Amino acid sequence: MTKKSCSFSCLAWIRPLYSGPILFACLLALFLPLWAQAEEQKWAKIEKIYNTYCVQCHGLQRNGTGINAKFMTVQPRDHTDPKEMGKIPDDEIIKAITNGGISVQKSILMPAWGKVLTQEEILELKDYLRHICNCGMEAKNKS
Question: Which domains does the chain have, with CATH numbers?
Answer without folding.
Answer: 43-133 (1.10.760.10)
